[in-house]
Amino acid sequence: MRLLFICSRNINRSRTAEVIFRNKPQFEVRSAGTDETARITVNAGHIRWADLIFVMEHMHRRMLEQRFSRELFGKSVIVLNIPDAYYFMDDELVNILLERVSDYIEL
């Protein structure tokens, strides 16, 4: 299963998610950001590639819907409700990601 994690700048939240889930053999994982200054900016190819898309906040979902409505057709976009209050690989962030994502996929 191909998982895509999205936040604003792809520095802390989505990048942390990519690191913790990419070591699981049942997943291919990528991450990106919605901001033009993101480390990796999400594009239509990312959306087409993904089987399941996780965004950190509702605003990320809205941005994807505005920019990639055609590519999102038939895709599941899940809002994890994780605010931009954590650093890369923060222990609390890792625990929150594991808990919330496990509601949607078997780890």
Automatic annotation (TrEMBL):
Q: Which SUPFAM superfamilies match?
A: Phosphotyrosine protein phosphatases I
Quote the SMART domains the UniProt record gives: LMWPc
Pfam assignment, any one: LMWPc
Q: Which residues form the Phosphotyrosine protein phosphatase I domain?
A: 1-107
What is this protein's name? Low molecular weight protein tyrosine phosphatase family protein
Q: Record the organism.
A: Paenibacillus thailandensis
